[in-house]
Amino acid sequence: MSMKIDQDLQDFLGTVDASKLQDTKDLLEIIHAETGEQPYLSSSSIIGFGSYHYVYESGREGDSPIIAFSPRKAALVIYGLVFYEERRDGLSKLGKHKAGKGCVYINKLGDVDQQILRQMIREAYQDKKGK
To answer: pTM, whole model, 2 decimals?
Structure first.
């Protein structure tokens, strides 16, 4: 399946810092290849793939991308690979990165093991898609 980029996403890509543009394009291809999902602009600066519906114990609910990333000037921020203490096993093998509670920060794709990243994307996507 070929990747389709709609006009909103194309316009956003035109605003990405030049130092992050190639990694952004590469990450678009990687996540599309591992999930089969088309990319879309989820918010003003987040590119999403897939969607899931969530409901919190409080009753608050909404929809969110299954996997997403934001090409910030300082780092690529990938959402959905880890959640708090879940799915952190791949991080030790990933390479140079920082991890928050629900996201992974990568300065550039060349800093990480592409196969481990692909595996983490695939596993996180399958886990979330199955719930």
So the answer is: 0.90
For residue 82, the model assigns a pLDDT of: 72
CATH 3.10.260 fits 7-129, yes or no: no
> Where do runs of H (alpha helix) occur along 1-131?
7-13, 18-35, 91-94, 114-129
Q: How many helices (H) and strands (E) would you count in the chain?
A: 4, 8
- Paired tokens of 45: 């600066």
pLDDT band at 102 (very low <50, low <70, confident <90, very high): confident
Domain ranges of the chain: 7-129
The one-letter code for the residue type at 127 is D
Distance from the first to the final alpha carbon of the chain: 24
**Percent helix, percent strand, percent coil in the chain, to nearest 5:** 35, 25, 40
Q: How confident is the model at residue 116 (pLDDT cuts 50, 70, 90)?
A: very high
Starting from the edge strand earliest in sequence, which strands make up the sheet with 47-49, in order? 39-41, 47-49, 67-71, 76-79, 103-106, 98-99
